[in-house]
Amino acid sequence: MMYGTKAIQLVKEIANGEKGQLTPFSSDVFSEVIAECSQHFADLRSLIRKMQEAGLDVETTKNEDHYGQLIHHLSLVRNKRCLMAYMYNRAEILRNLVWKVGSEIPEEIQEKLSHSEKEYFKKHSEALKSYMSRVVLELAVDMVPPKDPYIKVRVLDDMGEVELPSDNTANFARHSMHFLKRTDAEKYISLGKMEELTG
Amino acid sequence: MAGQSDPNVSIFSGEEVEFMAEDEMVEIVPNMRMEPLNMLCGDFGPFYPQMATQVPMWLAIALKKRGKCTIRPPEWMSVENLTQILEAERESQAAFQVLPFHYVEISSLLFDYASGDIPDLYMVRSLINDIRDARFLKVESSLESFEDARSSAVKVKNLSAMEVNVVRPFVGRALQAFYKHGSPDLVPNPEAMSARRPQATDNIQRRPLRRR
Amino acid sequence: MDPLLQETVLEKAGSIVRKVGSFLKMESYYDIDDILVEGQRVPVVFQQAVNGVDIDPSAETHCVEPGSKVELPYWLAHELHLRKVAKMKVPACFNQRTKLELGADGASVDLRSRCLYFYEFGCKIAPLVSDRDMGSFLLSAFRTRYQKILAKAHNAAFTAHSKLLSYLTKEETNLYEAAQSSMAAFKKWRIGGPRFERASVLGRKRKEAN
After folding, report:
1. Residues C98 and C174 in one domain
2. CATH number at residue A181
3. Do C75 and C101 fall within a single domain?
4. What is the pLDDT of residue B189?
5. Cβ neighbours of B18 in C, within 8 Å
């Protein structure tokens, strides 16, 4: 199999997925690519050793072993780029999510994340929170330009007694309808626990 | 706030463009008495019954919703003026008539919140839709012109905010592609290119305007 | 200004420009499409012997002999090409037949099946292979096909199962979709309705259990 073929699988997973959607973290393929990297590294080292044993200058000699090293080096760099891009593009989706749902990872997302991604989500949301408290501004509200301060909503998931950001409490029983402060409702709508009613 | 609602769709959402349009001034006739409002964006009022006054669109709509005023549609929204504009739009293949930068959003806001205040509502609504469609066809045909050689730009005058916003994602990408493919590194000799062009140009001229 | 100082300043400016330049290039490091473009296969002929690798499927040892013909992904082929270890040849999707077809009726050629990344791949290949007019060929192909995409792009009545879409390369599809989604967003705005929605990353709405 041509070098770098496994790593392309990861990249294709992002490319073929629906834009902005997360697929479950491919930990198997991911660790296979890392193993491939280690193999390239080992091969590279043994080619260097071979040259050293023959008393050749590794820096300047351009023989078949040198070109072998070059190919293993390039394959390593290529695999690394694929791994990085996989992580980077998933992290971007997570960063966007933090703005929409706050500090708790929704269940549907939780099961798709690797351990380090969960950690990343948590830290990113903490950083955002501490920044917002420093500038004393709730930056994550009004992601859609505001109209009325109050909107009508219907509860889709039973949530019971809930304390709202505006310090009020409300009883969100399933299918109940409420007239809420827009800023209180926004997060629940993003999470799919409520829907906005119009008209 | 650009692109916050959905980074993948376009640079601004329709809601965001509308938000910007809500800063445009409009004349209202209050039916109540109220002290002046002193806000960061300016002072509005005082308000007296039956005394027309200028306020931003968002304020006009807030008052209208609470039954505190009627809104006077802007002069350009008259049937007479819109009929004239529509004719002129259809007559000229290239030029766009001068309309307020936010005509799409302002008219849409007024239809939604103050339909009772617009004389000849149905006529006005259909005229504006026709104008919008006629203009959009022209936008599309003007975009054909930047297949012109190396001009990585296209000049279209008098487009409105919403019209620009709708074509922005397409135009941005297309320009980028033309820029990339026309880069001197790849196409070292533009004259050699122009020798092939006549055939392509002919095609464009013969192509009739599409109907949607 | 002291000429020596001036020189230092110019040198500094030059290095800043280079840094910015390489930063801009970095932008595409994580770019999924760019990675896939560089994964496209290119035929090469080896000029040097290489030891300790498994890239020649016809070889029985872990070696590549000079003169061996192999198809390598672009990311590997172009580095070897630059170091004169192997020589790149024009990939099949840019062959004479494709050129003739594109020249005759560019808009109806199925480029997607030839190479999903036809233009981007072509742009990378063009400066490396000895085909002088490949760049202008790409430009004129894109220009002709652009017209056809423009004609359909903002038209909502034109649906996704059309034949045209199955012919388009990735970049052309992106162009088409950019227009479609912005038109759809405009229509949605015009119709109105709820302004707040469930975050799209959470997927489609779960079916209500009753």
Report:
1. yes
2. 3.40.5
3. no
4. 56
5. 189
User: Are C185 and B9 inside 8 Å of each other by CB?
Assistant: yes
| Residue C195 at interface with chain B, using a CB cutoff of 8 Å | yes
| Residue B170 backbone dihedrals phi, psi, to 5 degrees | -65, -50
Domain boundaries B1-72, corresponding CATH code: 3.40.5.50
Are B196 and C140 a contacting pair at CB < 8 A?
A: yes
Nearest CA in chain B to A144: B5
Q: What is residue B40's predicted lDDT score, i.e. its pLDDT?
A: 92
Chain A residues 27-86 with a CB less than 8 Å from chain C:
43, 46-47, 62-65, 67-72, 74-75, 78, 81-82, 84-85
More confident residue, A50 or B210: A50
Residue ranges, chain C, pLDDT below 70:
1-27, 156-161, 204-210
Number of independent structural domains in chain A:
2
Q: Which of B162, B173, B181 comes nearest C174 by C-beta?
A: B173
* C125 and C73 inside one domain: no
β-pairing, A194-197 with B42-44? unpaired
Provide the b/e sequence for A73-89 (b: ≥16 CB within 10 Å): ebbbebbebbbebbbeb
Residues belonging to chain B: 212
pLDDT (0 to 100) of residue B151 = 58
Q: How far apart are CA A184 and CA A181, in angstroms?
A: 5
- Asked if ipTM goes beyond 0.95, one says no
Nearest to A144 among B5, B7, B8 (CB): B5
Q: Which amino acid is at A6?
A: K
C160: domain CATH number is: 1.20.58.2050
Ranges B10-14, B166-170, C29-33: which has the least confidence:
B10-14
Around Cβ B110, how many Cβ atoms within 10 Å?
Answer: 24
Residue at which a domain ends, from C39, C67, C89: C89
Residue that is last in its domain, among C36, C56, C89:
C89
When divided into structural domains, chain C yields a total of 2
C175: contact with B, CB 8 A cutoff:
yes
Specify whether A15 is located in the same domain as A98.
Answer: yes
Whether residue A24 has a cis bond before it, omega within 30° of 0: no
pLDDT of residue C27: 54
Q: Does C158 touch chain B (CB under 8 A)?
A: no
- Least Cα separation, residue A128 to chain C (angstroms): 19
In terms of Cα–Cα distance, which of A163, A27, A171, A189 is closest to A106? A189
Q: Does domain B73-212 have CATH number 1.20.58.1020?
A: yes
Is the pLDDT assigned to residue B24 strictly greater than 90? yes
Q: Determine the pLDDT at residue C57.
A: 85
What is the count of residue pairs from A and B with beta carbons less than 8 Å apart?
Answer: 15
Task: Report how far residue C139's alpha carbon sits from residue B179's, in angstroms, rounded to the nearest whole number.
Answer: 10
SS3 B11: coil
Range of the domain at A183: 150-197
C171 and chain B in contact, CB less than 8 A: yes
Q: Are C70 and C55 in contact (CB under 8 A)?
A: yes
Chains sharing 3 or more CB pairs under 8 A with chain B: A, C
User: How is residue C205 annotated by DSSP?
Assistant: P
